[in-house]
UniProtKB/TrEMBL annotation:
PANTHER family hit by this protein: BETA-LACTAMASE FAMILY PROTEIN (AFU_ORTHOLOGUE AFUA_5G07500), BETA-LACTAMASE-RELATED
Organism: Teichococcus wenyumeiae
Residue ranges of coiled coil: none
Keyword hit for Cell membrane: no
Protein name: Class A beta-lactamase-related serine hydrolase
Matching InterPro entries: Beta-lactam-related, Beta-lactam/transpept-like, Diverse_Enzym_Activities
Domain of life: Bacteria
GO MF annotations, alphabetized: hydrolase activity
The entry's keywords: Hydrolase
SUPFAM superfamilies named among the record's database cross-references: beta-lactamase/transpeptidase-like
Sequence ranges assigned to domain Beta-lactamase-related in this UniProt record: 28-399
Amino acid sequence: MNDAFHAVKPDDVGLSGERLARVDAWREALIRDGKLAGATTLVMRRGQVAHLGCSGLADMERGVAMTPDSILRIYSMTKPLTSVAIMMLYEEGRFQLDDPVTRFLPCFRDMRVFTGGSRGSFESVPAERDITFRDLLTHTAGLTYGFMQSTLVDAMYREQGVDFQTSDRSLGEVVELAASLPLLAQPGRAWNYSIATDVLGHLVAVISGQDFGDFMRQRIIAPLGMADTDFHVPEHKLPRFAACYARGQDGRPVLIDDPREGRFSAPRAICSGGGGLVSTVWDYARFCRFLLNKGELEGVRLLGRKTVELMMSNHLDGDMAAMGQARFSESTYTGIGFGLGFSVMLDPARAQILGTPGECAWGGAASTAFWVDPVEDMAVILLTQLMPSSTYPLRRELRVLTYQAITD
């Protein structure tokens, strides 16, 4: 058990140990059936760890077991930390949520919105207004991702190299490339999962005058005691770094990123605010506790209570189903809204899943997930390494298995 956490009996925090054992059975079956190489699950309630389980291998090729100290790619679970970074600057009075980002990034002036045509000759209209900070935080800026492969704008991103994971360009250069391409929708009109949080990372650097990666390490990661969280894995920690897999033709995991030789094994050209961090279950549990504590952890306060409450509020006009198109799998759409950096549960009945209104969540491309439930004072983390996250309905299954264990 990590020194910062105290293990308790589930019954001491209103959970059934017998029912929580279903999480272990589920996780172990996923390994036994060859769907996952390895996985870790953690359930925390009232600040205490009531469940922690690890199964399988972090690295099948080397026979390395999955443990609570294993380091994994969390991809889009980076986004909430980047959102905390920009909101720290918001609290310093550097900008307002409805301010246009052109105050700091003039490259986003005079944007145009794609309306039709082909890559060689597309049609567009002028944007009705500038993109705001709120648009970026809620993924309603009209930006997109190249990997979506759903629209011509996605294709333009791929052709022009708008990729914050693999590019050799600087963070600012890739942001400027994105700003040279048309928007997918008018700012504020539609929810589209996008590079918006990478743009926020660049804004953190521009507004603070500090390299984005350094800001994250010095002002968030270190103060929260997230000792193994970073944008790359140093050499002495590589033995703890998990391999990343995809589902093979026979249904079993196939290696797609070797932990000793992949791009996370050395410092990277871009620290991606949208998906660049690696972490451990212990480190992310500290971040979850920080959120549940409304911006404070062990005497260190990074955000005020009211700011965290604002982040955990739905900022969409309704749910994501009313404002977006289901083109990704980090969340369902119906009954789920979006706050400033993560999804927000609005109506569990409409979402057709156990949960609590006001619960915040997000996941990563390698099938990782977390959620924090302020009403139940509870957090759940799933760490594994299987791409894409749509391969199996792991998140929905784990939701049922954890919420059904509440007894008080």
